[in-house]
């Protein structure tokens, strides 16, 4: 504990955050808090692993912030929270980068270079951006352990995957199948059904209708429609719906006869006159009908029933011709139908003439080597030449793309390994019910629906950089062995198991066959899907069950996980499937789902489009706290989408952080003032002593209110955070900052400034401290930097918190418990009512355009409840002060003032909505009675002319005195009616003008960088009636500004004003000049502390703004440094000014106090003068004078050489952590 430090007027939030980070580094804050919580109950958290092959984006930042908030809260609630960062290291994201880098186009290229060489390349880039990740995440204030991380490429992790898989194998949950799957031709691998959901795009594809002449009916052709002409060479059947009606039609124009579904005739014909219906029958009648094949590539299937019509109910009536062509290895339904018909089977060669890269192979001789999508046009051309093309068009539809390569997927039959899921849907749904999701609808709807339709999981990938699937099999798969550990592999192979379990180290290991004379078993070539790896992280991160079994048992399932809504079909799903199959339970208890962060235009954020600002730029501009709070205080925490807007982050600084900082600064100012004026060193406790029996009736009512509100907030905060409802917590915290700054501080300024007596001041400061500290502690998980910044100064005057061993950081403190005895709901309600009355009074002022500075005679509050009116009476002084009225009248009967409600239609909204009906609706709205309008306000709308009109679609106003009381203005909020008498007499008007004078003095005082304890004299010169008012209200003005006020003509010779400026108030002019009175000590100190180096003061003219809102407007520039060396040129001076005020890219000029440009630098003539940074069109700057440099400085002398270093620049922005650092820097110049 020590003297509290002065708080500068301006703060650069990003720079102060960096100072906080240095403090955390110095005390090793994160690891220290982990050591401090050892032995406490565990709170387990799983971190979903990202890939380190790209940089973090706003989605990562959002999810990371949610995780950081919740785990900080858990730690500060008394838990030990292990927070390990995880890395997804295997799979397509890495391999795709290598394929692009090395020009690899298919498996043959990998075979040439060898798997070891390929995987070595993957290893090189897998952690390419890990350093940037650690830097960015750290800069955002997230505390997570990178040293004790987990990586899916660790051998320990991979061995646990083998164990997980062996457990599933032993339960009969794994099988091998040949199924049609989504397939990435760019990555040469199938994808699982949930991966496909991640990247759908609207595309334009060909849509062709092709004829299939019937053998039994010469001259009649079956018509099939397809959007994938490239599948037609593999056609072996057609399919119709057995129950829907089909027709044979004759085309009038050509005489051609076609068969298609009756409901789909409009695909060919616009009008019924274009065709004649010759026959009509159900689709079942077509079953078995033979047709002419399009191509002869697979003519052999004719012997197994190929090239005939099949029936199935999957055929729909909403697209195509109602006849679907069947290519069994390019469509899941096609394969099912053809298998059922015996056309293909497990013992028949697959009809799949497409290689791993999506290129045709034999026997499709006409298109060999062509990529299937490119072949569409050539196939269509050949069909036209053959006379089989009936229609060629295009269709725009949603189509799946590879989530990694962003290329179109195809559906292709591939041999794959599957985990059974479909048979376990009920178990998944039951275990999902045991979990708690925020928001709940994602669990019940999106995720629940996904589980109800869950399909068997194709987990194998025909790739290289991944965990090898531990299956060793004979060539015919008659003998299969699954391995669950390195030890088991050693025992069965007779060879030492390698330390590294990647393919290049295990593929050559064989296992002797148990069948005499048979060759040894070899490992299958596939690797695990990377989703299987991330879904197994609860076990693999701990090398379970080989290590940390006790730790795992204590922390499984996790207390908390969080990711984006897109993970409902990704990580959340795979976590649940794996856990369900291994332990028959959910792997987590609580889950927070966030929505997606989009660009400001609602599009996906795209590096290519550059449609979003770089996250680090935002952090460096506004600070990490502002970005964190912007994300957390948005719909995205309710799983809705957020359109990211930079101005939203900026506005939080203006509306939340600066008011909060200014309240803290105001507190410190008054603690320092008490120390200086009263000689009292105040210290404060983190809690108030007392109990439910404590008599609080003599306490200041606003103290009681803010203390009660704070304790209610603490209780509510803990309740909501326990329920993980961040989206309710943050708005209330932000609102409380407003309650503290705009209500408590403003209404108690005189008490806090000591104007009501020392004891009352000390009590108010005690309450202020407690509330400020408690708020800072609650905000700490959300905004870790500003809370640490404030706390480090507050703790200088804070008494030791009982039972607290570590208080070096606010994040080491446990969250406060509510002091129930301080809660008084009645007072909270009373002040809430008072606030509504004041806000309504302000509305009434605004409507009459009467500024708050001008006093008014009376405010009338009307309410039917006597207790409510009694509460307002108890707060009368605050109402009078805030509304600047002379009298408060209370009434319980609005009829006494002849108040009536009036409704007017919103022409813009209702006119556009109802058009022809609008006139009748408008007249009806104008005719609504008082009772009807009151009911409308209560029900948020009213029925008018058969239409429901919302209360927000009309304007509702109050008419007082039947319109005759022209000086009365009313405003209402529910049952509260406030009537303002706006008729002011001359004395009130004069007082309003006097307040304007006070306002100009205070603004100029602030502009000069003065603090309340500075001793000043104010000189005024006014014209016209303003001169009279300044004289009559002199005492009033002096009391308000706490300074001597004189006329400018009374100024004595030799006085140099600190600042002076001329203002216009109505039709009069007011000149204000401020002289700062120096104490003898200050004068002596100034005389002894003139900078060694020549310098100039620099002031930003009022027409310009600094590049950053929190930058000061005044600074100092050294013309030389050391003395006689490194003299500045004009260009260098301009560059210095540009950097000083962050004026990058802005046009400005440098001038003297007469407006003349600075075109050359003469150090002697410019020394100690002030130059002005003006706009190009500015004529003469607002003059300011300072007897010395604007900013603090330090002189250093070494070996006869002299130099000066500025300690801040501009005013309020510290440049060094300490004077020692500054001295060390300047000595390096000598």
Automatic annotation (TrEMBL):
Keywords: Aminoacyl-tRNA synthetase, ATP-binding, Cytoplasm, Ligase, Nucleotide-binding, Protein biosynthesis. Residues 703-857 form the Methionyl/Valyl/Leucyl/Isoleucyl-tRNA synthetase anticodon-binding domain. Belongs to the class-I aminoacyl-tRNA synthetase family. GO terms for biological process: isoleucyl-tRNA aminoacylation. Its EC number is 6.1.1.5. It comes from Orchesella cincta (Springtail). This is Isoleucine--tRNA ligase, cytoplasmic. Residues 1090-1174 form the Isoleucine--tRNA ligase cytoplasmic ubiquitin-like domain. It is found in: Cytoplasm. HAMAP family: Ile_tRNA_synth_type2 (MF_02003). InterPro entries: aa-tRNA-synth_I_CS, aa-tRNA-synth_Ia, Anticodon_Ile_ABEc, Ile-tRNA-ligase, Ile-tRNA-ligase_type2, M/V/L/I-tRNA-synth_anticd-bd, Rossmann-like_a/b/a_fold, tRNAsynth_Ia_anticodon-bd. Residues 21-642 form the Aminoacyl-tRNA synthetase class Ia domain. It catalyses: tRNA(Ile) + L-isoleucine + ATP = L-isoleucyl-tRNA(Ile) + AMP + diphosphate. One of its GO terms (molecular function) is tRNA binding.
């Amino acid at each position: 504990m020590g003297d509290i430090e002065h708080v500068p007027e301006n703060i650069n939030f990003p720079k102060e955050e960096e100072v906080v980070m240095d403090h955390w580094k110095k005390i090793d804050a994160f690891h220290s808090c982990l050591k401090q919580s050892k032995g406490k109950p565990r709170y387990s958290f799983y971190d979903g692993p990202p890939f380190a092959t790209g940089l973090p984006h706003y989605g990562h930042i959002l999810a990371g912030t949610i995780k950081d908030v919740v785990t900080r809260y858990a730690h500060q609630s008394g838990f030990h929270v292990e927070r390990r960062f995880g890395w997804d290291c295997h799979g397509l994201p890495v391999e795709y980068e290598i394929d692009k880098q090395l020009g690899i186009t298919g498996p043959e290229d990998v075979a040439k270079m060898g798997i070891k060489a390929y995987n070595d390349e993957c290893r090189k880039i897998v952690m390419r951006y890990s350093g940037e990740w650690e830097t960015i995440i750290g800069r955002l204030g997230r505390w997570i352990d990178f040293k004790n991380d987990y990586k899916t490429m660790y051998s320990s992790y991979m061995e646990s995957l083998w164990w997980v898989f062996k457990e599933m194998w032993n339960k009969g949950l794994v099988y091998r199948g040949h199924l049609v799957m989504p397939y990435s031709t760019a990555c040469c691998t199938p994808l699982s059904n949930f991966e496909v959901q991640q990247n759908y795009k609207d595309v334009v594809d060909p849509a062709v209708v092709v004829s299939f002449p019937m053998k039994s009916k010469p001259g009649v052709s079956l018509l099939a429609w397809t959007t994938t002409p490239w599948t037609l060479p593999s056609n072996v059947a057609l399919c119709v719906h057995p129950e829907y009606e089909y027709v044979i039609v004759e085309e009038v124009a050509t005489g051609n006869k076609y068969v298609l579904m009756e409901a789909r005739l409009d695909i060919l014909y616009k009008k019924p006159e274009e065709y004649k219906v010759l026959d009509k029958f159900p689709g079942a009648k077509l079953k078995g009908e033979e047709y002419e094949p399009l191509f002869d590539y697979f003519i052999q299937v004719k012997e197994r029933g190929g090239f005939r019509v099949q029936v199935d109910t999957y055929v729909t009536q909403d697209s195509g011709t109602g006849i679907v062509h069947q290519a069994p290895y390019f469509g899941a339904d096609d394969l099912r139908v053809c298998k059922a018909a015996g056309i293909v089977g497990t013992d028949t060669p697959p009809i799949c003439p497409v290689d791993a890269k999506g290129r045709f192979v034999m026997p499709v001789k006409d298109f060999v080597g062509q990529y299937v999508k490119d072949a569409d046009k050539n196939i269509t051309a050949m069909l036209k030449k053959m006379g089989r093309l009936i229609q060629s068009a295009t269709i725009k539809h949603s189509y799946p793309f590879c989530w990694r390569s962003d290329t179109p997927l195809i559906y292709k039959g591939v041999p794959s390994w599957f985990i059974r899921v479909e048979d376990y849907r009920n178990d998944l749904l039951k275990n999902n019910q045991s979990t708690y999701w925020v928001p709940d609808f994602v669990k019940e709807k999106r995720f629940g629906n996904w589980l109800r339709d869950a399909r068997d999981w194709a987990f194998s990938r025909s790739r290289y950089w991944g965990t090898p699937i531990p299956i060793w099999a004979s060539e015919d798969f008659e003998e299969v062995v699954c391995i669950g550990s390195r030890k088991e592999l050693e025992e069965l192979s007779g060879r030492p198991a390698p330390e590294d379990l990647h393919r290049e180290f295990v593929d050559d290991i064989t296992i002797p066959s148990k069948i005499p004379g048979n060759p040894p078993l070899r490992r299958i070539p596939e690797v695990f899907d990377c989703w299987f790896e991330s879904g197994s992280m609860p076990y693999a991160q701990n090398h379970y069950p080989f290590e940390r079994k006790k730790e795992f048992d204590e922390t499984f399932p996790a207390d908390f996980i969080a990711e984006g809504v897109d993970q409902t079909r990704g990580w959340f799903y795979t976590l649940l499937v794996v856990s369900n199959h291994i332990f028959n339970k959910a792997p987590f208890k609580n889950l927070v789902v966030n929505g997606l962060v989009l660009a400001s235009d609602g599009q996906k954020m795209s590096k290519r489009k550059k449609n979003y600002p770089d996250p680090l730029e935002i952090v460096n501009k506004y600070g990490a706290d502002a970005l964190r709070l912007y994300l957390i205080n948005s719909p995205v925490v309710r799983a809705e989408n957020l359109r990211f807007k930079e101005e939203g982050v900026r506005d939080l600084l203006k509306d939340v952080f600066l008011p909060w900082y200014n309240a803290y600064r105001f507190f410190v100012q008054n603690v320092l003032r008490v120390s200086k004026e009263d000689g009292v060193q105040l210290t404060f406790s983190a809690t108030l002593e007392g109990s439910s029996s404590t008599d609080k009736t003599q306490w200041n009512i606003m103290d009681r209110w803010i203390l009660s509100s704070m304790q209610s907030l603490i209780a509510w905060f803990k309740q909501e955070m326990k329920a993980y409802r961040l989206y309710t917590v943050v708005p209330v915290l932000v609102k409380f900052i407003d309650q503290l700054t705009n209500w408590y501080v403003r209404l108690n300024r005189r008490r806090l400034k000591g104007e009501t007596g020392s004891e009352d001041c000390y009590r108010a400061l005690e309450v202020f401290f407690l509330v400020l500290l408690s708020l800072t502690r609650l905000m700490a998980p959300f905004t870790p930097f500003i809370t640490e910044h404030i706390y480090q100064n507050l703790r200088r005057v804070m008494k030791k918190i009982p039972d607290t061993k570590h208080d070096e950081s606010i994040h080491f403190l446990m969250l406060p418990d509510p002091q129930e005895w301080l809660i008084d709901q009645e007072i909270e309600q009373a002040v809430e009512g008072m606030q509504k009355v004041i806000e309504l009074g302000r509305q009434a002022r605004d409507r009459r355009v009467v500024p708050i500075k001008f006093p008014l005679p009376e405010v009338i509050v009307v309410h039917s409840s006597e207790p409510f009116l009694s509460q307002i009476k108890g707060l009368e002084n605050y109402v009078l002060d805030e509304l600047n009225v002379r009298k408060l009248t209370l009434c319980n009967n609005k009829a006494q003032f002849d108040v009536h409600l009036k409704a007017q239609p919103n022409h813009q909204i209702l006119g556009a909505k109802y058009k022809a009906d609008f006139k009748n609706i408008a007249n009806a709205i104008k005719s609504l009675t008082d009772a009807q309008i009151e009911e409308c306000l209560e029900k948020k709308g009213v029925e008018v002319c058969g239409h429901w009109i919302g209360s927000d679609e009309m304007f509702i106003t109050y008419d007082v005195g039947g319109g005759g009381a022209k000086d009365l203005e009313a405003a209402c909020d529910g049952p509260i009616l406030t009537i303002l008498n706006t008729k002011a007499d001359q004395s009130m008007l004069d007082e309003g003008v006097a307040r304007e004078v006070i306002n100009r003095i205070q603004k100029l005082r602030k502009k000069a960088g003065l603090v309340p304890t500075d001793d000043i004299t104010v000189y005024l010169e006014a014209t016209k009636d303003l001169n009279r008012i300044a004289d009559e209200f002199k005492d009033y003005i002096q009391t308000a500004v706490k300074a001597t006020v004189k006329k400018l003509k009374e100024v004595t010779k030799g006085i140099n004003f600190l600042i002076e400026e001329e203002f216009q108030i109505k039709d009069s002019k007011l000149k204000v000049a401020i002289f700062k009175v120096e104490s003898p000590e200050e004068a002596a100190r100034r005389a002894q502390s003139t900078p060694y180096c020549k310098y100039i003061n620099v002031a930003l003219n009022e027409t310009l703004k600094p590049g950053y809102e929190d930058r000061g407007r005044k600074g100092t520039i050294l013309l030389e440094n050391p003395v006689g060396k490194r003299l500045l040129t004009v260009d260098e001076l301009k560059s210095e000014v540009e950097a000083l005020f962050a004026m990058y890219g802005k046009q400005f000029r440098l001038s003297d106090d007469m407006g003349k440009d600075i075109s050359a630098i003469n150090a002697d003539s410019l020394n100690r003068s002030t130059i002005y940074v003006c706009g190009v069109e500015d004529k003469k700057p607002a003059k300011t004078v300072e007897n010395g440099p604007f900013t603090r400085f330090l002189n250093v002398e070494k070996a006869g050489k002299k130099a000066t270093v500025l300690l801040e620049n501009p005013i309020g922005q510290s440049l060094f952590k300490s004077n020692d650092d500054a001295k060390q820097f300047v000595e390096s110049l000598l």
